[in-house]
Amino acid sequence: MSFQIIKVRFIYGLFALACALLSTSICLASQGTEQSLQTDKQNLKIIALAPHIVELLFDIGAGKQIIATGSYADYPEQAKTLPRVGDHSRLQIEKILKLKADIVIAWRSGNPLEDLARLEQFGIPVIYSDPKQLEDVAKELLMFGEVTGRQTVARLRADTYVMGLKKLREQYANQIPISVFFEIWSAPLQTIAGNAWPQQHLNICGAQNIFADLSNDYPSVSLEQVISKMPQVIIQPKANKQLASRLYDWQKFDFLPAVKNDFVFRPDADRLYRMTTRVLDEVQVICEQIQLARRYYQQQQS
Description:
Blueprint: H1 3-21, H2 24-42, E1 46-48, H3 51-59, E2 66-69, H4 93-99, E3 103-107, H5 113-121, E4 126-129, H6 136-148, H7 151-171, E5 178-182, E6 185-186, E7 189-190, H8 197-205, E8 207-209, H9 223-229, E9 233-235, H10 257-260, E10 264-265, H11 269-273, H12 279-301
Helix pairs in contact: 1-2, 6-7, 8-12
């Protein structure tokens, strides 16, 4: 949290204390000042450097405050018209300085930290987003609500998200495990393991990742390794702009249970990989698909 935001919070605290100790007139005056500070927050010019940050800001009604973003922000539709100031490998420092943003909100795991440090040296406050768990989406909503003076809407969105996550977990709890291969990339063949973000999605669905025990979160694996595991389901997330030909052609291996029984699924990668409220909709989709496969295999065994 930047010094600027900490300072604003401190001022709020002083006014709250004044309301508790002093006369009504002073209290009313302080409330007016607090309202003014909230308005100031709602007018901050923000550069949001990752797609999930842009999406969450629009989610709480702060989309109009965004004056620029990174290369891949494409949701909602209005995000496509925003000026671009860099990507995961490099930020356009000079362009960012010319925009005179009040705050930069960056993704700690997805933006170049050296460039962000340079921005801070130029006096631009940088706030860091760093969601790791599904629950963190709600925390990010609350943080952005505080930063932009939209706490009420942010609380509403966060509570709705938390309830949706809880409902999903309860719906698919205690299911019979089903083996799944999750394809991140086709050449080289890459999957998920350990604490990878999509591993949480499989956990909710009661799916057993055939490479969950590998140490690297996004390991490369050989074709022989996948075949030897004989997965019952294959998940190939596909982004809207991604060509189907970039996905691995599993139909060549019709002896695999997943291929033989037509359980190769292609959920929306943008929804699945981004740390936004939309992720729950796509987790629901893959849970339903996995459940379909689970019932089929159970019937085969009975």
